[in-house]
Amino acid sequence: MNRSNMKKYLIPCLAIVALAVMPGCKKQKSSTTGQGLNSSKWGGFEKHEYPGQETGPGLVLVEGGTFVMGSHEQNVIFSNDNLKTRVTVQPFYMDETEVSNHNYREYLYWIGRVFVDMPEVFRNALPDTNVWRSKLAYNEPFVEYYFRHPAYQDYPVVGVNWLQATDYAAWRTDRVNEYIMDREKIIKYNSNAEINEENFNSKAYLAGQYDFATKGRNRHQKRDYTKKKKFLKKKSVRNVTMEDGILLPEYRLPTEAEWEYAAMAGIGNSQLENIDQGKIYPWNDLTVRWTQNNGATEKVRGLILANFKRGKGDQGGIAGKLNDAGFITTPVFSYWPNDYGLYNMAGNVSEWTMDVYRPLSSADVNDFNSFRGNVYKQLQFDQFGELELKDSLGRLKYELVDPAENVNRRNYRVADNIGFKDELSYYEGEQQYEYGVTSLVDNQARVYKGGSWNDRAYWLSPGTKRYLDEQLALSTLGFRCAMIRFGAPIGNSKKKFNTLPSSGIGHKRKKRR
Known about the structure:
The chain is an alpha+beta fold. It has a domain at 59-373 and 451-484: paralog of FGE (formylglycine-generating enzyme) (Alpha-Beta Complex). The chain has eight helices and 21 strands. It has helices at 3-21, 101-114, 119-125, 140-145, 162-183, 202-206, 256-264, 361-364; strands spanning 28-29, 36-37, 59-62, 65-69, 85-89, 92-95, 222-223, 237-238, 270-271, 274-275, 317-318, 321-322, 350-356, 377-379, 398-400, 423-425, 430-431, 445-449, 465-469, 477-478, 482-484. A four-stranded mixed beta sheet has the order 19-18-13-20. The longest helix has 22 residues, at 162-183. The chain is globular and about 75 Å long. The chain starts with a helix and ends in a 29-residue tail after the last strand.
């Protein structure tokens, strides 16, 4: 056979082989009933080939594990609110850097372009640039220029309160999922169609609150196996569902435990389930400079490892030999990342977390995915049992869960669990914390972590923490986003789990003849 004839013969054969190994062409059967999956003949129940969770834009995978949460530094302020306790953190994703001015301006631009009839949405999202003002300092140039001037576009955004940071994370979730839907050719992105409540919202889409067909935005939807072809003129299609695994989970603020675990980055000091060297800061050694002990060369030895205030009146060092070269904040990719590849987990700006502050949280919270701040909600339905329409921002409507419906539950009953364990009579809501009378702590006090450009080295230790009202902002306080990791802790293979050859788990079984 000559080469030209062989080529004509091989190309169709290779095409047939390729089609045969494509996941979408594989005939699957139920391991429970033997009936066909992804088949209209058997009713249309589907099982999807899931390659694993993709890493969202800007994120770094943080492999979970156990660690000692709390202060690893002498408690010089005698707060006693961060006592050591061992906890385990689920694998998750964390932003590689703090959210920058440029990132946040993109958010504001989108709001101004979409919510044309609701200018108050734009105003409410604006950062408070007046946080730079100090009664005995001239900081007016930062008030006017820091957020918008291109010289600071890659610097961390500040003046953003907890509520605004949470809204930014929700917006980012929808924009990333909208991009994925367009990339996968499921919907066609059209910026002109995003007006007011008609913008894309992930949860509203999954709840069937969008009809892209009427807007001319449908492209290649998923095959609907519940309807047989012979009764239809063309192939039936459906919207993407959560079971397809295409949409990513929510971007959000990290919990206090997640932030501290990611900052400490013990993965760089672990061997055979042992942490060989403890840390005070996100890097090795007991100093804030590069030393020979942490692998420094002559060129970098002695350089400051983070942006912080070295001492009274010393923001950046001496001209000609600046120590951290940061008089205020520095660009988000400054200095060296920690062992997870995260930048500025000590210094530059402190960062918001999800948690509500309580002095005794370290003694109260669970030892797995520790968190205080749960307020349980459910979708809102009308009197006829129909799902309520979207709100003015295009989001689904939620309401607090009803305690009367949870009488037989053992894990929770009321919706608001922020004050759990600090109330005399929990279900009647009689609180021990009397804000302004016996304490300055209330349910709007949110934890923030890490040191900033205007803090001493003590606050660079990940175990330290402070709190601030969720409606307030600081010139030293920014944020970064996190996301839950689904499935295997790392990678997407069954080989990541311990299995025994005799168990059959994680091993291919021989087909019965």
